[in-house]
Amino acid sequence: MKSRSVVLFFGLAAAAFAQQQDVFQVGPVAVRQGERTSGSIPVPKGPDGETTVPVTVVRGVKPGPVLALVAGVHGSEYPPILALQEMAPRLDPKRLTGTVIFVHVANMPSFLKRTIYYSPVDGKNLNRVFPGKLDGTLSERIAYTITREVIEKCDYLIDMHCGDGNESLRPYDYWDVRAANAEVREKSRQMVLAFGLDHIVLDRERPQDPAKSIYVSTTATTRNKPAITVEAGGRTLSDHESVMLLENGALSVMRLLKMIDGEPRMVEHPLFMDPSQVMTTPVTGIFYPVVEKGHTVAKGTLMGYVTDFFGKRIYEMRAPFTGEVLYILGTPPVSAGEPLGMIGKAGEDARP
């Protein structure tokens, strides 16, 4: 039996579903009902070059919601990219209600150069410059393009991540509990439960200004579009388990939205992580972790330390509170100001 909140979700969502036009277009990719089309959205050229964003659009035979699945915002996060590679050709438009936009690799410069966090072109983190600028640097122009051609054309969004190339991460996802629109908060909550990961970070730090949204998912929620961020995998691995977690989670959300047949796989006993904290290093050097992802640590526990390049310990990272390690760096190089790990504490409830 569906919970009352799930029924409420369907009722609210049904009213928001817009009738699709005869031709649905994402950049140069034009799709009619019952079709699947792939192509690349050109990013406007600037002094620092140009790039493209490869997408596949699958449009069902029946009108319904538009769901955007975004992968590759960070170029060394491979499981989300591989999950969409597997999903897109298998999704049958004749059995689909609505439309799915697959953003295969949002950050092509970083992907091709295998860089973590930052673009090799302008040194910026793509997931920190949304909604972007038409006349900005390459990362800002990518963000502008994705905002205009994907986020503003979808009804729901899943931003798919994993631990970057240097991060050892246990699966979890984010729910923005500060979204100004209560209906968006509730729909996002149902999406995060349907995705199937039982560790859910209650994110209380997201901005509320659509002109300074910073993140992919927040660019959606500040435009009144329910959205979540999910994490599975890391350390440049392409493991099958993480790929399947991401693929199955996206399919479960599609079932929640009544886009495909079947019932969503709702998390029955979620662990809402609140508070949570990303810990950064104040120094540059070599990192030595002493705990692993998934470990529970007491407040004050040594989680890792940084040495200088001669072996002298110059910084110790200790747990700010008792909680579970959501991710920790798994490679030695660290630069001042960058993350070393993240910890979350399971709260009693999920009240914003």
How does this model look, in words?
There is one protein chain. This protein is of the alpha+beta class and 352 residues long. The chain folds into 2 domains: 4-256, Aminopeptidase, CATH 3.40.630; 274-346, Beta Barrel (OB fold (Dihydrolipoamide Acetyltransferase, E2P)). Helix content is 23%, strand content 32%. The protein contains 7 helices and 19 strands. The strands form 3 sheets. Strands 3, 4, 5, 6, 7, 8, 9, 10, 11, 12, 14, 17 and 19 form a 13-stranded mixed beta sheet that branches. The protein has a 4-stranded antiparallel beta sheet with strand order 16-15-13-18, with no helix packed on it. The chain is globular, with a radius of gyration of 20 Å. The two termini are 26 Å apart. The model is unreliable at 1-5 and 10-20 (pLDDT under 50).
Short structural description:
With 352 residues, the chain is of the alpha+beta class.
Just give the CATH class of the largest domain.
Alpha Beta
Secondary-structure element series: HEEEEEHEHHEEEHEHEHEEEEEEEE
CATH fold-level topology of the largest domain: Aminopeptidase
- Strand count: 19
Annotated CATH architecture of the largest domain: 3-Layer(aba) Sandwich
Describe this protein with a few key phrases.
7 helices, alpha+beta, disordered N terminus, 352 residues, 2 domains
Topology:
Elements lengths: L3 H13 L7 E3 L2 E3 L4 E11 L2 E11 L2 E9 L7 H13 L6 E7 L4 H6 L24 H12 L6 E6 L5 E3 L2 E5 L5 H14 L3 E5 L12 H6 L5 E5 L8 H17 L14 E10 L4 E5 L6 E2 L4 E6 L5 E6 L4 E7 L3 E2 L4 E8 L6
Parallel strand pairs: 5-6, 5-7, 7-11, 9-10, 10-12
Antiparallel strand pairs: 1-2, 3-4, 4-6, 8-17, 9-11, 12-19, 13-15, 13-18, 14-17, 15-16, 17-19
